[in-house]
Structures are given as C-alpha cells and as structure tokens.
Design brief:
alpha+beta; 2 helices
C-alpha cells in the first residue's frame, strides 16, 4: 500500500470514529400537565416524573392556585411519543380518568359549562 493511501485510510477511519454520536444519556421522562380554571382563567403547569407515586392536586398545584384548588380541566401539555399513562382519581367518585399521549384532555367538573370544582384531593399517578 502506498503511504498516501494508508494515511488517507487512517484519517478517514479516525474522522468517522470521532464523528459518531455519543451514547444516549439517561434523562428522565417528564410528563407536563396543565390544570385550568376556565371561569377565572387561572392555570398552572407542573412536570410529573413517571413511576414516582401518586401526588394530590393540592401538592402539585396548591402553590399556584391557593387553597382550595378550584379547576375545571386538566391537559397534557407535552405528552410526547413516550408510553406515559397517567391515572387521575377523584376520591369521592368511583372510576378513573386517563391522561396520555392520545387522550390529552380531562374534564374535571363533569359539565359542559365551566363550573370550577374543588380538586385539592384529586390525585394523579403516572407510569411508563
């Protein structure tokens, strides 16, 4: 092999190796949700890390909404393409509501009109 060919081959190999993408990082999956009060116009976003257990709306939104937490709906702001599934529970009512990449809206007041309800005791738990 000619020295120029060998040098070109080694240079190409080194350049290609250095240009390869680094290994992906283990960044946590974040599921951002927004609680809204359609009557007052108040809303707040929170980031939920899946597989960290259930959190009440008072814990998540109390600082932004005050007490009690009055709201009408919950939306997925950045559902992404991940397989995050969130379960919303009202302790006073049997049954669960689901929030994910395909079902991005939950009506919390249960009426067509905007009627804020106290959602302080509601909880949300997200999992992968």
């Amino acid at each position: 092999m000619k020295p120029s060919t060998l040098l070109a081959t080694l240079t190409t190999l080194a350049t290609t190796t250095l240009a390869a993408p680094s290994l992906p990082r283990d960044t946590p999956v974040i599921f951002k949700v927004q609680l809204s009060n359609d009557l007052s116009g108040k809303n707040a976003n929170v980031d939920i890390v899946p597989n960290t257990g259930a959190k009440t709306f008072a814990q998540l939104f109390g600082p932004a909404f005050g007490s009690p937490v009055l709201a009408t709906s919950l939306q997925a702001v950045t559902p992404g393409a991940t397989n995050v599934r969130c379960v919303v529970r009202n302790p006073a009512v049997y049954g669960d509501l689901y929030l994910n990449a395909w079902n991005t809206f939950v009506d919390l007041d249960g009426t067509p009109q905007a009627k804020p309800v106290d959602v302080s005791a509601f909880s949300i738990e997200c999992s992968l």
